[in-house]
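Good morning,

Attaching, inline, the backbone tokens for the sequence recovery test we're adding to the shared suite. The designed sequence is right after.
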């Protein structure tokens, strides 16, 4: 393994100043030919290479971007990260990925770590626990480039890229209604998240359109975003134990949807005979479930791409960016057996 030499080490070995070494390596006319040759030959001998982090500090660019997500293993976020990387690497940027595991404290630490790595900008999807966005407000006010995607901070005026969560939820709920279900519950994430609010509004709008009353008892929130299996199981059991038990459930996120199927199977509840299902998920395996699952898919890869394009455009802008956009991309409803009412 090669020992990593710095300009300081070369200066010490040759008995000259660090500024002399620095200028000699750059071929500055201010340094005599003999000194220049001495420094350059020694640098070659010890296999000296410029430190890319030190260079980035000098020109204020590291050519890296930080990504904050809840969990890389989540199908949606793994696809979004692929989209992020496809754009970033082609434009000469490295990607540093961090996971919050739905913890606000971990999110805060992750952001501070990314800043210590001198990233040029941040791509952020908030954790389920995050209600305080002051660290992002501070950075945004200082002109630091931030783009939110999926789970956004509505109180910060910066670029955002999201799926059409309202329409996705509306379409899935209306499909359940048109299949003949009227008692429809909604299992979803923490109320802190923008996606939760938008999907709940879409759910309520579909019920209202078809003259079905929204019942607060049919709404179950999992505050940890599906990271805690027991929390999901408790919510599912609570719905099943109701006197006026729901006939169908619309599920508002990826991990909740997958785990709900597992829990119902464990409890001996047959889908869709005993309980029909439709949910948000980007998992590729749900069509292999028994029965295959009706889902709302988000264009995660494209969302990652769009968010990265906006971030790098902001980073490379010669002037402070003051006009920001919220890009909303369409979801896709895929109907399968889990949402059908069997005769």
């Amino acid at each position: 393994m090669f020992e990593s030499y710095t300009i300081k080490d070369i200066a010490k070995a040759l008995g000259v100043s660090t500024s002399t070494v620095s200028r000699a390596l750059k071929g500055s006319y201010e340094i005599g030919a003999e000194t220049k040759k001495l420094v350059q030959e020694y640098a070659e001998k010890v296999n000296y290479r410029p430190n890319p982090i030190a260079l980035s500090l000098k020109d204020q660019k590291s050519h890296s971007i930080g990504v904050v997500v809840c969990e890389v293993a989540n199908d949606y976020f793994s696809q979004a990260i692929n989209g992020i990387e496809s754009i970033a690497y082609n434009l000469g940027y490295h990607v540093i990925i961090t996971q919050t595991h739905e913890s606000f404290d971990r999110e805060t630490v992750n952001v501070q770590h990314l800043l210590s790595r001198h990233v040029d900008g941040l791509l952020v999807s908030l954790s389920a626990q995050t209600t305080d966005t002051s660290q992002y407000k501070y950075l945004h006010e200082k002109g630091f480039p931030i783009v939110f995607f999926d789970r956004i901070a509505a109180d910060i005026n910066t670029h955002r890229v999201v799926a059409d969560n309202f329409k996705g939820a509306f379409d899935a709920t209306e499909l359940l209604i048109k299949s003949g279900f009227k008692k429809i519950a909604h299992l979803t994430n923490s109320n802190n998240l923008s996606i939760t609010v938008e999907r709940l509004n879409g759910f309520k709008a579909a019920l209202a359109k078809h003259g079905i009353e929204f019942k607060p008892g049919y709404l179950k929130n999992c505050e940890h975003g599906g990271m805690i299996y027991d929390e999901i199981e408790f919510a599912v059991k609570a719905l099943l134990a109701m006197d006026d038990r729901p006939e169908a459930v619309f599920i508002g996120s990826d991990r909740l949807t997958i785990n709900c199927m597992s829990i119902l199977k464990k409890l001996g509840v047959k889908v869709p005979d005993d309980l029909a299902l439709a949910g948000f998920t980007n998992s590729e395996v749900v069509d292999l479930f028994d029965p295959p699952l009706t889902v709302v898919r988000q264009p995660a890869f494209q969302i990652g791409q769009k968010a990265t394009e906006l971030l790098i455009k902001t980073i490379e802008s010669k002037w402070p960016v003051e006009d920001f956009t919220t890009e909303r991309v369409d979801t896709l409803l895929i109907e399968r057996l889990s949402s059908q009412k069997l005769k």
